[in-house]
Amino acid sequence: MAELPNPRDADRDGRNETEAQRADRNLAELLQELRVAALGVQVLFGFLLALPFAVGFTKLSTGQRHLYVATLVLAAMATALLTGPVAYHRLVFRRHEKTRLVSASNAMALGGLGAVGLAVSAAVWLVVSFVCHGWTVPLISAAVFAFFCVFWIVVPALGRRLPQG
User: Which of 9, 20, 114, 141 suits a disulfide with 125, CB 3.0-4.6 Å?
Assistant: First the structure.
């Protein structure tokens, strides 16, 4: 028999759904978001994997090589974190653990997005340091990192404080 929604279980946004329905909806929304994020980091990761085979790679300084390795590791971590919810879902499929799956997947997604932001910022630093020199390198890289922070942290935090309407 299907579980009927209890009016006392309504979310703050007015939905009247069971815990199972809420978990299904939350998982579907999260997986849709991860499709977008994972594709972007996979493109960056693929580029980074191919980079050492490029002709100009030998011109990188020792510091740039260290930055490249850090960027590569961040992109790999982001890939693992952003695809982790899919693996988790496959391992707990039909075991009635969807609420726990959504919670763990949310944590992986947030960690993955943080790793993406750092990987992209580090990749920008690497490319700009190869093309330019001096104060423009940290300035441009810091601006990109700040851009991520503003639109991924500050704007959502401000949005949470505004009344819904």
Answer: 141
